[in-house]
């Protein structure tokens, strides 16, 4: 494993026109979009920006990605046909099945239909690499996953980071390098997996404000509740929002912050009766003069609903990848590009 300090100081490999000219390029994209797939989907717009840059220079382009958690079994509801059609519409260019002759662009079906993807099977990665010359990772949001198309596939091809991937790292490094203190993390949401990352943030942050459903997963005797770096919210009776007193406690820390990282809504914001915590904390962060970074699908959804997205210095497309990079200083998919 490459050290985090080395990663933080190292430039990611950027492709040039010469690197891809007349080459067969495979792009790892973030295609994990919901049931409604349309041209407003940010992850698809990131992909389309890359495809427009390399189309006409590369000999062929094949797009890889996944949707959902099919656990190695084909599921019609999670195939990539509609994703492919939407990208076709955005590009005004035909996209065919993988390796179909006489077309410049192709899209493989859901990688997770094969168990080798999530098992990081090197033989599966070799299979994916067959017939290609260049690999580009434009899937920052899944680059914290130790999966075949993220960490093993780059071993077999000349590999580069995509333009958006590079912008993600450049902007997130500002948090780590920033002299604007205190550094405050606001960590919320409903996934209990986020609790595991709280401890690792302690060495990076001056304060960690914990909301959403996470306080319900932190038991009374947890060291986190005794640590002065952590401000853990109280929840209202139905646990779908934080209390008024907790909003006030969070705002007190936000007003002092020099840098803020926001991950997750404070409650069930899509319901009007539970939007108060998310609205007041998000507006408080948006209105302060700190360096402001946010990340994750639900965070972005809430920011868009509240019309606050323009008040942030950077909104990461990947919540989990963002937090892992900020806590560990690296990602498996990032390290795979530097080999």
What does this structure look like?
With 339 residues, this protein is an alpha/beta fold. It has two domains: 165 residues, Phosphoglycerate kinase, N-terminal domain (Rossmann fold, 3-Layer(aba) Sandwich); 159 residues, Rossmann fold, CATH 3.40.50.1260. 37% of the residues lie in helices and 15% in strands. It has a six-stranded parallel β-sheet with strand order 3-4-2-1-5-6. Strands 9-8-7-10-11-12 form a six-stranded parallel β-sheet, with helices on both faces. Helix 7 links the parallel strand 5 and strand 6. Helix 3 packs across helix 4. The radius of gyration is 21 Å and the shape is elongated.
Q: Topology, please?
A:
Layout: H1 4-9, H2 17-20, E1 24-29, H3 42-54, E2 60-64, H4 81-91, E3 95-97, E4 105-107, H5 115-118, H6 122-129, E5 134-138, H7 148-152, E6 158-161, H8 163-177, E7 183-187, H9 195-201, E8 207-210, H10 223-226, E9 230-232, H11 244-256, E10 259-263, H12 276-287, E11 291-295, H13 297-305, E12 314-316, H14 319-328, H15 332-336
Parallel strand pairs: 1-2, 1-5, 2-4, 3-4, 5-6, 7-8, 7-10, 8-9, 10-11, 11-12
Helix pairs in contact: 3-4, 11-12
Task: Give, in spatial order, the strands making up the sheet with the most strands.
Answer: 3-4-2-1-5-6
Q: Catalogue the unreliable spans.
A: none
Count of helical segments? 15
**% residues in beta strands:** 15-25%
For CATH, the homologous superfamily of the largest domain is named as Phosphoglycerate kinase, N-terminal domain
Q: Count the beta strands.
A: 12
Helical content (DSSP H or I, runs of 4+)? 25-40%
Q: What class, by secondary structure content? A: alpha/beta
CATH topology of the largest domain: Rossmann fold
The biggest sheet amounts to: 6 strands, parallel
Number of self-contained structural domains:
2
